[in-house]
Design goal:
This protein is of the alpha+beta class. The chain has a single domain (13-144), classed as Peptide deformylase (Peptide Deformylase), CATH 3.90.45.10. It is 19% helix and 34% strand. It has helices at 27-43, 124-137, and strands spanning 47-49, 59-64, 67-79, 83-90, 93-103, 105-111, 117-123. The radius of gyration is 15 Å and the shape is globular.
């Protein structure tokens, strides 16, 4: 396992394009997921997506119920109508914290590291982390969300 360099900057091409589907869970994919896991732990983040380590693959690691969980080819199949706003940061955009409005609940479909399709209902922080990471898989960053007013707050929050 290795701590990988994190791609920094909102104009980095790998952070701005839609990722490719992972066709099969291979040893190489599992190795990359382990490296991503070590990288996000080292950075003390709440999640990391493959583009953030320079790989345009549809997979990420997300902190769900206190555990770093690998998500391969994740997709949101349901979003709650209820939303809330919370400041989010990003490992690829150091020192940027912005209020982002997201659905409070989602249903997520993904393939786990064993190659098994899973479906999970997630709420609150768990749902927020996953939505943030899935944005990365579609080339979307927190700076792309509309802002009602500038917020200069730099309080400690979970880095995603």
């Amino acid at each position: 396992m290795a701590v990988l360099p994190i791609v920094i900057g909102e104009n980095e091409p790998v952070l701005r394009k839609k990722t490719a589907t992972v066709p099969k869970v291979t040893k190489e994919i599992l190795r990359l997921l382990k490296d991503m896991d070590e990288t996000v732990r080292n950075a003390e983040g709440a999640g990391i997506a493959a583009p953030q380590i320079g790989q345009s693959l549809r997979m990420c690691i997300a902190l769900i119920n206190g555990r770093y969980t690998p998500l391969i080819n994740p997709e949101i199949i349901w979003r709650s109508e209820e939303t809330d706003s919370m400041e989010e940061g990003c490992l690829s955009l150091p020192k940027v914290w912005l209020p982002i409005v997201r659905p409070v609940g989602i249903t997520l479909r993904y393939t786990d590291a064993k190659g098994t399709e899973q479906e999970r209902k997630l709420e609150n922080f768990n749902a927020r982390v996953v939505q943030h990471e899935l944005d990365h898989l579609d080339g979307i960053l927190i700076v792309d969300y509309p802002q009602q007013k500038p917020d200069a707050s730099h309080k400690e929050h979970a880095k995603m």
